[in-house]
Amino acid sequence: MSLVGAIDQGTTSTRFVVVNDSGAFVAIAQMEHDQIFPNPGWVEHDANQIWGNTERVIAEALGEAGVSASHLSGVGITNQRETAVVWDRGTGEPVANAIVWQDTRTADIARALDTEHGADWFRDRTGLPPATYFSGPKVRWLLDRDATLRSRAEAGKLAFGTIDSWLTFKLTGRHVTDVTNASRTMLMRLDTLEWDADLCAAIGVPMEMLPDIVPSIGRIAPCLGVLEGTSLSAILGDQHAALVGQAGFERGATKVTYGTGAFLVSHTGQDIVRSRAGLLSTVAYQIEGEPASYALEGSVAIAGAGVQWLRDNLGLIDAAPDVERLASTVDDNGDVYFVPAFSGLFAPHWRDDARGVFAGLTRYANKGHIARAVLEATAFQVGDVLGAMASDTGSILPEIRVDGGMVHNDLLMQFQADILDADVVLPSNVETTVLGAAYGAGLATGVWSSPSDVSAHWQEARRFHPAMTTTDRERLLRGWSKAVERSFGWVGG
Ligand SMILES: Nc1ncnc2c1ncn2[C@@H]1O[C@H](COP(=O)(O)OP(=O)(O)OP(=O)(O)O)[C@@H](O)[C@H]1O
Ligand SMILES: [Mg+2]
Prior knowledge:
By secondary structure, this protein is of the alpha/beta class. The protein has a domain at 3-246: Nucleotidyltransferase, domain 5 (2-Layer Sandwich). It contains 16 helices and 21 strands. The longest helix has 27 residues, at 367-393. The N and C termini lie far apart (62 Å). Magnesium ion (MG) is lined by residues 8, 10, 238, 259, 433.
């Protein structure tokens, strides 16, 4: 039996999974890392802590499986995407905490880029509008703060990478990133899949810092240290990995992943489709020796993170799954709406001046309504990105494939089907992110011979049918869109 390994370095935790050739998990180990909030709107991670946790979960899962790294045909990495790390090439030490994708400190830089060049200049080249979300401007922010850092960067002494690149550097000694992670920097041209001098100059990131761009699935590099004996054979940003984990290899294949944020990704074949409705154009994945596949993406910053906020900041629940019981103590939202614009609003609004609001509160509202509003916010936001998708493609999806930690919440999944008026379908393995990295590693090393070989493992496990009246749906959607407007323009102005 062949085995592959997969590292899932997420926003809240790091996992390592050993997967067999039927796609089943043989062993899994997981560790959370610190969320560092130095100022309102800022979010940082300690890259060394993440690397330490990665080494630990690898050793633990290999031990649990009773195998050594040399038993693995290959290893894949999937990761939180736009989080930026800058380190010293000589010492391998980060020069600062990693700036996380949710961090909004680059709002002024994003606005200046928009004013100087226009959003379309960036969209045409990168598929992305200037926004705090993306990694390139985060590097610019770091270099702007410290002139010695900029001169060291220009002298080639510093390396920039997203988390995939940081872990690859630690695991193999190579400084590379894959096309999916590179497509989130605002520094790579989507059509050529190469760093672009004009983009780097506009954003203010010296090209000397950049990693080499490699295909997502292929022979990347032999591993050292804790994984010595196997090789790194896939790198995929988490949402791209989830598409692969849902066996989304065909044009039109669409999935929504509900984790820290919620992310809709729809395969557009080898065409770069430009959105007019606030979606991103991005690389879906690239298999070595083949042209890249592209995707349209609707990114929602806060989904499960809203549930974590109920737990950690309000103390209304002890554990994330408890939100379902609390939300079920009431029959409906009691006209309470929650817009979780903690990091502004991403797709389809792209408003970095938005901040979170509760709307519609009366003396009647209780904590059950608050919990319900937090859950419903995820479904409404996904509804908005699917609406954008429908307006871009001119077609409405009859069903969506879903995955991620929040899909264990039946109340949310039923409400999602109701709000979309479409079926919501869960696969037998909802851990599609890490599974996609494993599939990538196995495709590169011949464990699976082709994408269709992988697709044979996809199985439907559950399906939620819409059961809400049109009148109720329209009333709720009206309430939601009024609440969204209330969140705009909070910062600045
Ligand atoms: N039963 C549940 N109901 C609602 N939310 C849940 C439930 N179980 C988990 N969550 C939320 O789902 C998220 C965890 O899901 P998952 O592990 O897929 O996240 P993730 O985004 O992959 O994490 P990371 O960002 O670390 O990769 C958390 O934000 C948690 O609050
Ligand atoms: Mg994840």
